[in-house]
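DM between two lab members

TW: hey, do you still have the prephenate dehydratase entry open?
JB: yeah, one sec
JB: this one, 276 aa:
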Amino acid sequence: MSPKIAIQGFEGSFHQIAARHYFGTDITFATCATFSEVVRQVTSEEVDCGLMAIENSIAGSILPNYNLLQQANLRVTGEVYLRIRQHLLMLPGQSLTDIREVHSHPMALLQCRAFLREHLDWRLVETEDTALSAKNIREQHLTGTAAVAGSLAAELFDMDIVAEDIHSDDQNYTRFLVVERAEKAKPVANANKASLYFHTDHQQGSLAKVLVRIADRGINLSKLQSYPRPGYTWQYYFHADLEFDDAQQLEQVLEDIAPVTDSVRVLGVYRKGETY
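TW: and the structure you got?
JB:
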């Protein structure tokens, strides 16, 4: 039986594109309106695992998702980086000269602002999702209307790409994490990256002590993200992503930072993701 993957967004979304790259095409999807629903479905074992965006190279971290992962009993077992390519999609047989309206998610419209500004006569309509915009155009047979979306949406909804790569920044990447129930997650072979949470005693220099011990073991701290610690005013959890050469390095650094942290929780040990 094909594995079932929970993703945030609708059919044809960038989450689905990323999932196809990571898992292959022999999978089924459970589309979720929110990231909370992704976590709920994975936790309740309605799906085999989930895929959720965690940060974007332009927009930055998706802070609520760090909090979701910290609270859930989930394990990070992989990651994938996806270059976000936005295209202009229309019903077959139409062209740029036919466009009166352009529909898409506000962030997608913003990412394509330079291209869209060249066509001041186009009315921009904000929607809840890029791929859903394309689907609605297909189902409602909206002529004169284009959607800003990815190539998978064009494939799934039989639409033409009338303008490729209309985004303003070519270096727009989103990082996605693969999450599973902790009890079901199996050790990842040849792991070279770990995600963990920790918090310190909130004294001067406490965080610096942790960072120095990580650096002393020759580990690359590729991500450090703070977010509020519930119930403790102006105190923070820290999410850290560590890249290492062998498992012993990770074991040593976890021993090293234990005395200078109040708590440490390893969220996952996995392979550094590929970029597509």
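TW: got it. The longest helix spans residues 130-140. DSSP finds nine helices and 15 strands in the chain.
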